[in-house]
Write a structure and sequence with these properties.
With 103 residues, the chain is mainly α. The chain has 4 helices and no strands. Helix 3 packs antiparallel against helix 4. The longest helix is centred in the N-terminal third of the chain and has 26 residues. The radius of gyration is 19 Å and the shape is flat. InterPro entries: Brnchd-chn_aa_trnsp_AzlD (IPR008407). It comes from Methanohalarchaeum thermophilum. Keywords: Membrane, Transmembrane, Transmembrane helix. Pfam families: AzlD (PF05437).
Length: 103
């Protein structure tokens, strides 16, 4: 049991430290507005790339309304553009996919 706890703590530190060091260092630096804006868009760009790859490559490989992922993406994209709220966008995607799978 001690080994398992030690492994969990070790894995937590190995995951936490590389993420916190850049955050602490960058938070102390006054970044130019253009760089701050660019950094703010990185998570959205990565998420979009991963989702698009999943829909097109690993999905049904069809660009029509029979592709469930594309159908669920349409209202999700509209909510994302309209509200600019991550939680509303994620909830819309989950609910859209649930409705499509139940139908």
């Amino acid at each position: 049991m001690k080994d398992i706890i030690a492994i969990i703590i070790g894995m937590s530190l190995v995951t936490y430290i590389p993420r916190m060091i850049p955050l602490v260092v960058i938070s102390k630096i006054d970044l130019p507005n253009y760089l701050e804006s660019w950094l703010n868009n990185i998570p959205i760009a990565i998420l979009t790339a991963l989702l698009t790859l999943n829909m097109v490559v690993y999905g049904q490989n069809s660009y029509n309304l029979n592709n469930k992922m594309i159908l669920a993406a349409l209202p999700t994209i509209l909510v994302a553009i309209k509200t600019e709220s991550l939680i509303k966008t994620v909830l819309t995607g989950i609910i859209s996919m649930a409705i499509i799978n139940l139908a």
